[in-house]
Amino acid sequence: MARGILIDVAGSKGVDSLEAGYEISMADVNAALEKQGMKNFGFLPGDGVFFRTGWGKYWIKDNAKYNSGQPGIGMEVAKWLSDVVQVGVTGADNWGTEVIPNKEPGCAFCVHSHLITRHGIVNQENMHLDDLAKDGVFRFLYVFSPTPIVGATGSPGAPIAIR
């Protein structure tokens, strides 16, 4: 359970979906927050910060495109999440949260490694965020109850946003 904050990057750019390989920058984060009326928002340690890229619209409808790559965050935003905001959980409406392909040579899932392995930050993937964005809900109570699986490194469950 955490305070959830949605950052609608696709919406702030006026597009249905960002393109595969688009890396969300801190400038994008700040522009989205400003458009959402949250300029200078006071993030707190333990917050859940979630990114809407629009990529979820391809899930099951166009699996070839969905699996071809994805827009997402890179190390600049990952370091902000871990070192400045000190989030407890992050996620996005794509299959990995981070940008694929990453422009940095040798960076294969380096955002995952940074967030999960080095900082213990939970990563929620394949989230449905379109309705929250459509309704202008950018702050909410985030609740996730994972299925307990002994020895697992991940788990299915149903995240809930309570307004």
The helix/strand class is alpha/beta
Q: What is the CATH T-level topology?
A: Glucose Oxidase, domain 1
The parts where pLDDT drops under 50 for at least 5 residues are none
Distance between the termini: 13 Å
Number of helical runs? 6
CA-atom Rg in angstroms: 15 Å
Give the count of structural domains: 1
- Please tell me the CATH architecture by its name: 3-Layer(bba) Sandwich
Biggest sheet details: 6 strands, mixed
Q: Look at the structure and give the mean pLDDT.
A: 95
The first-level CATH class is given as Alpha Beta
Number of strands: 8
Global shape:
globular
What does this structure look like?
This protein is 28% helix and 19% strand. The chain has helices at 9-13, 26-35, 63-66, 75-85, 110-119, 130-134; strands spanning 2-8, 23-24, 48-52, 72-73, 89-92, 122-124, 139-143, 160-162. Helix 5 (110-119) links the parallel strand 5 (89-92) and strand 6. Helix 4 runs parallel beside helix 5 (110-119). The chain has a single domain (2-162), classed as Glucose Oxidase, domain 1 (3-Layer(bba) Sandwich), CATH 3.50.30.50. The protein has a 6-stranded mixed β-sheet. The two termini are 13 Å apart. The chain has 6 helices and 8 strands, in the order E-H-E-H-E-H-E-H-E-H-E-H-E-E. It has 163 residues and is of the alpha/beta class.
Give a brief description.
Helices cover 28% and strands 19% of the residues. The protein is α/β, with parallel strands linked by helices. The strands form 2 sheets. It has a 6-stranded mixed sheet. It has a two-stranded parallel ribbon with strand order 2-4.
